[in-house]
Design a protein that fits this description.
Elements (H helix, E strand, L loop, with lengths): L22 E2 L5 E7 L5 H15 L3 E7 L2 H14 L6 E5 H8 L8 H7 L8 H10 L7 E13 H6 L11 H11 L1 E2 L5 E7 L6 H9 L16 H15 L23 E7 L13 E4 L10 E9 L7 H13 L14 E2 L2 H4 L2 H7 L1 H13 L1 E2 L6 H18 L4 H19 L2
Parallel strand pairs: 2-3, 2-4, 7-8, 10-12
Antiparallel strand pairs: 1-2, 4-10, 5-8, 5-9, 5-10, 5-11, 6-7
């Protein structure tokens, strides 16, 4: 909940597209074009990945290219339509992988996996299953890192209120009740510190809360379940946190990547993706995280992930696979979290490594791995970004504003979401 980036048009005009040549031809050395969007990670990639890989593989040179996310997705979609060369190893996130793989854009990795004897049981099984389902059933990409929803809390605000910190025994009723207690108001009755920060359907907190309390944004048949009574009841409870309890600020903004209110101690708790911790880890904020509370139906946590693909028109697929496999399984000595968009390594030996524990804290690392392994789910589907940003979020905004009842908003959203799902699955 990759964090979820700026929406893009999926009908891309096939124009002359020149991105980067797939590889340089050389009789002595192969150059691989490795492309991703994480500009803030560029230095770590060069020092922790590119340089050590080149030392171990002197016959392969890595040309690392960082492209802004919106431009990156637009150009890759154009390449998927036109067949233009784009690069050798590409980083893609889960929703975008669906859009590329259903266009038959990426190389089948099964022969390379068998040849290299890569033990796939060492990856989180749900992630591998998910990447198979993104395409035709072949494994045309490998998940690299994953994230899950967690409950963050501000230790200072809990201490000031003489309240015990959240833990794995919490139910959602505990979270809602505590949020009311922690909300502070000024002399005019306006809140200046809220107990909880929630989203309007654009991030992972909403999905996690609704599913844990018996609702389904999508059902097992990948159809919208928004008009189900259990879903409506769960969504109503979520909206009531703002409209009735007044213990969370009004959520707003489709493309808002991170709301700094938690970092600024303006909210005591936040139900959100674990990757948001990079915004305040290492700062002065006293904070921690725990599992999402248990709902009336279950305990769950929405997951999201990034991975790598090799385009079918790559000129040096053997070398591209060697690089992909190396990055997936090699632990940089200073902490693998520095080179990942999401927090948890998809490769279990890295997820259980001292290097990763050192970067996130051993207790947190073990907790995140447990959530991913036991409680995670995903709603990623064809057309995910379209129905999420253009339909569900606007309808949720109307429910929060009171211009529609929750039942009306969910009924209206369900019909439109199912239209997108049916069209996108073709």
């Amino acid at each position: 909940m990759v964090l979820r980036k700026i929406p893009i048009l999926f009908l891309v005009v096939c124009t002359a597209f020149v991105f980067y040549r797939c590889s340089n031809n050389s009789s002595k050395q192969v150059t691989l074009k490795v492309i991703h969007w994480g500009g803030y990670m560029e230095n770590d990639w060069r020092t922790l990945v590119v340089e050590p890989f080149e030392r171990e593989h002197p016959d392969i040179k890595i040309d690392l290219t960082i492209v802004p996310y919106k431009l990156y997705t637009q150009r890759l979609l154009a390449a998927a339509v036109s067949g233009a060369p784009v690069g050798d190893v590409l980083m893609v996130d889960d929703w975008f992988a669906v859009e590329l793989l259903k266009r038959n854009f990426a190389l089948d990795l099964e022969p390379y996996i068998k040849k290299s004897v890569l033990d796939m049981s060492l990856f989180y099984a749900d992630l591998i299953k998910e990447w198979r389902e993104y395409g035709s059933g072949d494994l045309c990409g490998l998940p690299y890192s994953a994230g899950v929803s967690v409950l963050y809390y501000n230790e200072n605000l809990f201490d000031d209120a003489h309240l015990s910190y959240p833990d794995t025994s919490w139910m959602y009723d505990d979270m809602i009740r505590t949020a009311k207690t922690l909300t502070r108001k000024d002399e005019n009755g306006a809140a200046n510190v809220w107990g909880l920060l929630i989203d309007n359907g654009g991030y992972t907190g909403f999905d996690t809360f609704v599913r844990a309390n018996g609702g389904h944004i999508l059902n097992d048949n990948v159809e919208a379940g928004l008009s189900d009574s259990t879903t409506i009841n769960a969504v109503q409870k979520w909206v009531n946190i703002v409209r009735l309890d007044g213990s969370a600020p009004q959520p707003s903004g489709i493309a808002e990547l991170y709301n700094p209110m938690f970092s600024n101690s303006k909210v005591a708790m936040m139900l959100e993706g674990d990757h948001f911790a990079k915004h305040f880890m290492g700062g002065n904020l006293r904070w921690d995280l725990t599992m999402p509370p248990k709902g009336s139906a279950m305990r769950c946590s929405e997951r999201f992930n990034d991975g790598f693909i090799i385009p079918k028109n790559c000129e040096h697929p053997d070398e591209a696979w060697e690089f992909m496999k190396w990055v997936e399984t090699f632990p940089p000595q200073t902490g693998v979290a520095k080179i990942m968009e999401k927090s948890i390594p998809a490769y279990k030996p890295l997820a259980n490594s001292p290097a990763w524990y050192a970067s996130v804290g051993e207790q947190r690392g073990k907790l995140l791995s447990e959530i991913l392994d036991k409680y995670s789910f995903s709603y990623i589907s064809p057309g995910w970004y379209e129905w999420r940003d253009n339909i569900l979020i606007p309808e949720m905004d109307q429910a929060f504003l009171g211009t529609k009842t929750v039942a009306q908003a969910m009924d209206d959203a369900e019909m439109k979401v199912n239209e997108v799902l049916a069209r996108s699955a073709k």
